[in-house]
Amino acid sequence: MTGIICAPLRMEAAALRVPGARVLHTGMGPRRAAESAARLEDTPVVVSGVSGGVTDRVRPGDLVVATEIDTPEGPVPLPSAPLLAAALRRHGLTVHTGPITSSDGLVEGAERARLAERGALAVDMESAQFAARPGPLAVVRSVVDTPGHPLWRPGTVWRGISGLRSLRAAAPVLAQWCDAAAGGEILLASPRSFCAGVERAIEIVERALERYGSPVYVRRQIVHNAHVVRRLESLGAVFVQEIAEIPAGATTVLAAHGVAPSVREAAADRGLKVIDATCPLVTKVHNEVRRYRSRDDTIFLIGHADHEEVEGTFGEAPDHVVVVEDAAAAAQVRARDPERVAYVMQTTLAVDEADEIASVLRERFPAMSAPRRDDICYATTNRQRAVRAVAEHADLVLVVGSTNSSNSQRLVEVARRQGTRAYLVDDVSEVDLRWLAGARRIGITAGASAPPQLVEELTRCLGGLGRDRLRESQVADEDVQFTLPREVG
C-alpha cells in the first residue's frame, strides 16, 4: 500500500501537498494523533510538521529526521532514518538525525533542557501515537523555535514561514519514501564483503600501528574502500600516492593490489621499512609473469589497464606484457612469436567476460600457455556466483562497495546481465529512494573490500521500509586464511 504523509496542522498539510504525495491532516495533539493512527492500521506513514528544537545544535528551518521516538513505553527505533536523511540532504536541505520526544503539550525552558540532556533534538506532540502502531514509520520535523530562539518572541512569524518552506521543499522526498515503503523481502547474497586477502591487508596496517606507532605510511589505498581508509586514518595511518611522498626511513605498507618492482626499488632507495600487504593471490600472478618472462613469452594480461593491480603486474615485465581489456582487443593483439605466448588475468574480473577474452586468445594462439590455476580469485568467483543467484529472483540488487573497487563494479555488471536493475553504493546514504519503488524483492551483496557492517546497516534501513523478511542465498563456504608477514606476525 502506498504510504501517506500525516500533518497535524492544516498549514503543514498545505505545505506538504505536492504532486505524488498523499497527505492527511490529522489534527494537533496526542488525542487526535491517536485517532488518526488507529484508522491507518499498518499503512506506511511519515509524520511531518513543525516542532520545537530542544538544543541550539538545530536552527529554525532545519529538518530533524528521527532515528527514534521517545514514548512513555520507551524508545521506538525508526531504522529507515539514514536513507531518508540522505535523500533530503541530496535535495539541498539542512538535516539532523537523532531522537525526537513527544509530549502532551508545549514544552519550554527547563523541560527542554532536560530533554536535550537525554539526547533529544526536537519535541512534538504527535509522533509517539504513530510509533505505537504497526507498519513502516518515519518522522520528519521542521524546527521553528529553539532555546536561543523561543517561540513567543519577535521573529516567530518569520521562523514559522521558514519552517513551512522547509516542509514544502522536503515534500517530494517524503513522497518518495512513501512510494519506497512496502512489504517484501531482502535476499542476501553469500559470500559477500571481506575476503581473506582484504582482512589480511587491514590487519597488517593495524598491527604495524600497534608495533611501530603512528604514523605508518601506506602507498595508495590499502584496499579499495573509502570507509576502510577513513577508519585506518583515524588510527594513525597516512595514505600517499607515491613512495616519494614518504619520509626517508619511515614504516611503509604496500597495498593489497601489488606493486611493480620499480616501486620496491624506490622504497629501498629511501631506506623505508617496507611491509608487504600484497594479496597472496596477486603475488601468484606476479610469479606467473616472471616465469613466462624467463621463457621470453609474450604475456597477454587480461584486465583493466588503469587498475592498480594491472599496473603492478605489468611492471614485472613491461617489455613482454600486453594488456588485453576486452574481446575486441583480443581479436587484434599480436605476439612476437605466436608459438611463445601465455596469458594471465587480473584477479577481480567478471568470470564470464574474462573467459570470453581468454577464448578469443586461445582460438588465435593455440600454443598459448595458461596459468596452472585460474587467476580470478576464489572470493571474486564466489561473490559473482552469489549475486547471480540472488539477481535471478530480485527486482533490484544493491551492491555495497566503493566506485574504485573493480570486484564491486563487476558484481553490478553480473547482476545486470541477469536482467535485473543493479546499483553500486558506497553505503546506505547513496541509495536513491526512487530505486526502491515497486521493488518487492531486493538483493544485497558487497564487494570483497566492503566492511560487513555496511551491509548490516543497509539491511536494517530496508527493514524499516517494510522489507522485514530476510532470506540468505549461500553458494559457497569460505575458510581461506593467509599468514601475516614476519614484520607484524
From the N-terminal CA to the C-terminal CA, the straight-line distance is 56 Å
Q: In order across it, which strands form the biggest sheet?
A: 3-7-6-4-8
What shape does the CA trace take?
A: elongated
Assign the structural class, choosing from mainly alpha, mainly beta, alpha/beta, alpha+beta, or little secondary structure: alpha/beta
- How would you sum up the major sheet? 5 strands, mixed, barrel
Tell me the number of strands: 20
Radius of gyration: 28 Å
Number of helices: 17
Residue stretches low in confidence (pLDDT < 50, at least 5 long) are: none
Helix content range: 25-40%
Mean pLDDT rating: 94
**What fraction of the residues are assigned to beta strands by DSSP?**
15-25%
Give me some keywords for this one.
5-stranded parallel beta sheet, 20 strands, 5-stranded mixed barrel, 489 residues, alpha/beta
